[in-house]
Specification:
Blueprint (H helix, E strand, L loop, with lengths): L1 E5 L2 H17 L4 E4 L4 H12 L9 E4 L1 E3 L9 H8 L20 H15 L2 E2 L2 E2 L3 E4 L15 H4 L5 E5 L6 E5 L1 H5 L4 E5 L5 H8 L20 E6 L4 H4 L1
Parallel strand pairs: 1-11, 2-3, 2-7, 7-10, 10-11
Antiparallel strand pairs: 4-9, 5-6, 8-9
The chain binds 6-phosphogluconic acid.
Amino acid sequence: MNVNIFKDYTECNTKLAEYLIKEYLCQSKNIAISGGSTPIGLFNEILKLTNKNFEVKSRIFWVDERCVEPTSEESNYGSAHKNFLSKMNIPKENIFRIKGENKPQNEAESYSKILNEEVDIVGGIPSLDLCLLGIGGDGHTASIFPHELDKLIKINPCVVGTNPDSGQKRVSLSLNQINNSKEVIIHACGSGKKEIIDEIISKKDNYLKYPASHIKPSIKNLSWYLDFDSAENFMN
Ligand code: 6PG
């Protein structure tokens, strides 16, 4: 496990952007991105570090998607399109969005099929080159929430999760699918994450109840990209 700690959100995003540009975006690799607010700062740094002649060669998949229209404010695709994809030189055929507007189980099966067709198969299931994850204060990652942990440790590449607070359905990569990636990065900044990050990295109390504790990529180490605020408890 590599734990990278930077002084603030901006520096964390700059360093992660530099890494992604060098190792992924300028190569024909398969990466899956998460939603939420954390990636927005990262997208901004990628835009700052590249110019309009930079062509994104990697193919973009999603770790999860809320079951909403792509035009919804809540859509992970919608957020990535608004803040990143619409501002980058990336061929449309390199974008594989999860169709949140479809029936959840149908889309989970359909996206599983797409992953099986488009991505290397390792150990019988697709192996993405990179999964870029966030983490919630409850220890969820992707759309794998603590109350559904058992349900989502599935061999199927994609499953249907449920946000316990809103009841919102989401299509998500399963834990097994995430762990079959060649590299996994958890990107988490801000003091709101400091307790959960310390519990998980330091393996405190019953940390295994958190889905993010089960992220163990089979090929490379898991890397954390944190800032002083999110790593405060872990560092002290
Ligand atoms: C989602 C994400 C989710 C996110 C965490 C952190 O669909 O919401 O995939 O797993 O990464 O909830 O969200 P923030 O970056 O907003 O803290």
